[in-house]
What does this fold into?
Amino acid sequence: MAASPGILSRSRKQVQPGLAAELKAELELLESAWPGDLPTGVIHADPLPGQRFFRGGEVSGLIDFYFACTDFLAYDLAVCLNAWCFETDGSLNVTKARLLL
It folds into this structure.
């Protein structure tokens, strides 16, 4: 369902002046620096703790492959590190990170 023209015009009035140009510049910077030589393959793309099953201390199953795709293998690793290896105070648990890697 498309947004009505009134909603679009109101939302444009609320955008900070110059923000579109700033976002365009940032996207261009990201595109120019985007790595092209990292290993790729099929990834889960959403490997959060609630989507893993364990039996006897080992992973026994994975669910929710809605976002699965071919992309950088490092993406799944980064998401796992972020979701599994940080404490509630925001600090990295180095022991967990080393075990994951």
